[in-house]
Amino acid sequence: MLKEIESRRSIRKYSTRDVTDKQILDLIESARLAPSGDNTQPWNFIVVRSAAIKNALISADHNQRWMKEAPVLLVCTADITCRKKDGPFHLDENSPEPELKQIIRDTAIAIENLLLEVEHDGLAACWTGWFDQKDVHPILGIPENQYICGIIPIGYSAEARPAPRPRRPLDTMVYYDSWGKSKK
């Protein structure tokens, strides 16, 4: 799996080649198998192929026009009720509730599984999140108990693989037994 982790890139140019429903469901299966706290499995996915709906989502996601080239937008949500049983369910980017952080963490694990499977399958994707909840919910009729964690364009790359981005060396981020303590 390290090969896919090292080679995965955020792709923003897509060919016109379609992605099948089976391919999308295989990607979602990789997300479905992710671990979650207390096995809550808060994630849900909306597969968007409609040009009109894609345009509305693109507009809500700071008008990132490059997203339009992808044949599929996959909207990933997290179910607040898996951790917070009683309303109100108004959670957004500024909410202080710890439950929000837990469902985002768990759903992020599922999304990363999906992105690695995208790479493994020879597809391309880019996790986007430059939107406000209030703008995306009505476009897709998403209930208030769902927190949108990302919109992921998926397709086949139409660009050369970008060079690896710089990464911090391990010795600048790994400590032993306490903060700042290096292994001797």
Describe this structure in words.
- With 184 residues, the protein is of the alpha+beta class.
- The chain contains five helices and four strands; from the N terminus they run H-H-E-H-E-H-E-H-E.
- It has a four-stranded antiparallel beta sheet with strand order 1-2-4-3, sandwiched between helices.
- The protein is globular, with a radius of gyration of 18 Å.
- The mean pLDDT is 92.
The low-pLDDT segments are none
Kindly report the average pLDDT value.
Answer: 92
**Shape, please?**
globular
- DSSP helix fraction: 25-40%
* Gyration radius, rounded: 18 Å
Elements, N to C (H/E): HHEHEHEHE
Question: What topology, given as strand order, has the largest sheet?
Answer: 1-2-4-3
Largest sheet: 4 strands, antiparallel
How many strand units? Answer: 4
Distance between the termini: 30 Å
